[in-house]
Write a structure and sequence with these properties.
Layout (H helix, E strand, L loop, with lengths): L29 H19 L4 E2 L2 E2 L1 E4 L4 E4 L2 E3 L4 H22 L2 H6 L1 H17 L2 H9 L4 H27 L4 H9 L5 H21 L1 H7 L2 H4 L10 E4 L1 H4 L24 H4 L20 H12 L7 E4 L1 H4 L9 H22 L4 E7 L6 E2 L5 E11 L5 E8 L5 E3 L5 E3 L4 E10 L8 E10 L2 E13 L6
Antiparallel strand pairs: 1-2, 3-4, 4-5, 6-7, 8-10, 9-10, 10-14, 11-13, 11-15, 12-14, 15-16
Helix pairs in contact: 1-4, 2-15, 4-6, 4-8, 6-7, 6-8
Length: 466
């Protein structure tokens, strides 16, 4: 068995085999370059974004105590929670779409486990050397050099993990304040807990567990096959072309000798971050990183064979059948994604940052005034979700002769303020069409008519109203 693979049970009596560390060989090629680009972009966004400012506040900040969430020019409140649900539906559908189209693109290029593991592996190679040097170092007895290298590696891992935890908390607590509190040793208990927790999770998952997270803990590896079909792009070994495999001299005619194109160099196994042999067929442990594609193409170049012995392909193509990229499921996913994404963008663009809720006084359905009018009492909950204060006016319509008693002509509401406003609505009973009538409350900013919202309430009158 290759030393890069997790050992398996040798007989039916063995229920558990001790984990063996995988030493992925560094690989270069077009897919490796794409993976480096993806890792750089994603980590750059993650670490830099909290430090950006926009319009006087942190560009991206989920301020839980204030129940306010900033995303550049947009400010969201708990009342906007349905946008998060909408976004999660789009994310789930995107996962289905890209998996059905091109397999585990998410796992190979964008999953946080993959991204941070790549960074940790890069640090490990810089400190301990390449794959062979790491294996030799781990097998050697502890000495001053080994201790120094191991201590340096883990110190860098821990520092990166701590910075990762601090950055994570910086999305919920303004990161400038968080940094000052850290330097002054005045971090709060929750900030301290989450920095340690998230940092420890990063250190454990990317530094120690690595492929075990993908193989044993990630549920996606278990249900991905339900989203695959025979036209899904996968990374596959062309068995018809490659077998029988075996080493050979470069100057022989391997086809005349009855040999396939696979030279059995095992490099495809050595570069695999999960330690599988792609030549054994499609396996759930494969995360679709395409490292085996890059290294196999390099070997094919060296022996002057055509590239693509291991490649992105489909099961139908491998069997010599026509592959269909545009198929009903892909088209349906794409249309749903387009509709949901377009709807979300349109909804946010048309969003009005004010909220009006109507609460009737349930202790008394209605009362009759000394003037013979029917009166209902309400509490209007007014929320100014804009970044600026506004003066608002409230009007009511829906029945002829409605009178609104606010106790004031206009209401000044500061940015982010929630105001409970008791109001009374009166009407001559002769104008009531029925015992329960729909009326509309309109809230409008006097300095910005675009900030207008209308909500419908119920006006209750005597049962004999006609």
């Amino acid at each position: 068995m290759s030393d890069t693979q997790t050992s398996s049970a040798s007989n039916d009596d063995v229920l558990y085999a001790k984990h063996e560390k995988i030493y992925p060989r560094a690989v270069h090629g077009k897919f490796a370059a794409l993976r480096v680009l993806g890792v750089s972009l994603l980590l750059g966004i993650y670490y830099v974004l909290p430090w950006l400012s926009f319009d006087g506040h942190q560009a991206v900040l989920f301020d839980l105590p204030a129940r306010k969430f900033y995303i550049f020019s947009l400010s969201f409140w708990p009342q906007d929670f349905f946008y998060l649900a909408w976004l999660l539906v789009i994310a789930a559908l995107s996962l289905f779409f890209f998996t059905a189209l091109a397999g585990r693109l998410w796992c190979g290029y964008a999953c946080p486990q993959t991204v941070w593991t790549e960074l940790f592996l890069w640090i490990e190679r810089k400190v301990e050397g390449d794959r062979s040097k790491q294996m030799k170092l781990d097998k050697s007895a502890m000495n001053a050099r080994k201790f120094r290298l191991k201590a340096t590696k883990h110190a860098l891992w821990i520092a990166l993990s701590a910075w990762t935890g601090l950055t994570f908390v910086g999305y919920f607590t303004p990161i400038a304040e968080l940094w000052r509190a850290l330097l002054q040793l005045q971090l709060g208990p929750w900030e301290t807990f989450w920095i340690i927790f998230y940092g420890f999770a990063t250190y454990g998952n990317a530094g120690w567990m690595r492929e075990q997270v993908c193989i044993y803990m990630c549920p996606y590896a278990r249900f991905q096959s339900a989203m695959f079909d025979r036209d899904t792009l996968i990374i596959a070994y062309d068995e018809k072309r490659g077998e029988p495999r075996g080493s050979r001299k470069r100057d022989i005619d391997h086809h005349a000798a009855g040999m396939g194109d696979c030279v059995d160099c095992t490099l495809c196994v050595q570069v695999c971050p999960t330690g599988i042999d792609i030549r054994n067929g499609l396996q759930y442990q494969c995360i679709g990183c395409a490292a085996c594609v890059d290294v196999c193409d390099t070997v094919m170049d060296k022996v002057d064979y055509p590239k693509g012995l291991i490649r992105y392909t489909t099961e139908n193509a491998i069997d010599g059948k026509k592959a269909h990229v545009l198929r009903p499921r892909i088209i349906a996913y794409a249309l749903f994604l387009l509709a949901l994404s377009g709807g979300l963008v349109y909804s946010i663009s048309q969003r009005i940052p004010i909220e009006l809720d109507i609460i009737r006084d349930r202790n008394m359905l209605y009362r009759e005034t000394d003037m013979g009018l029917v009166e209902n009492v309400y509490t209007l909950k007014l929320i100014n979700m804009d970044e600026h204060p506004h003066r608002y006016k409230v009007t009511v319509t829906g029945l002829p002769g409605l009178e609104l008693d606010l106790g004031q002509d206009a209401i000044d509401i500061a940015a982010g303020e929630v105001r409970n406003l008791p109001v009374r609505v009166r009407i001559d009973p002769i104008n009531l069409e029925r015992p329960s009538n729909a009326i509309d409350f309109k809230l409008e900013a006097m300095d910005d008519p675009s900030l207008t919202t209308t909500q419908t309430g119920r006006f209750i009158g005597p049962s004999g109203a006609q």
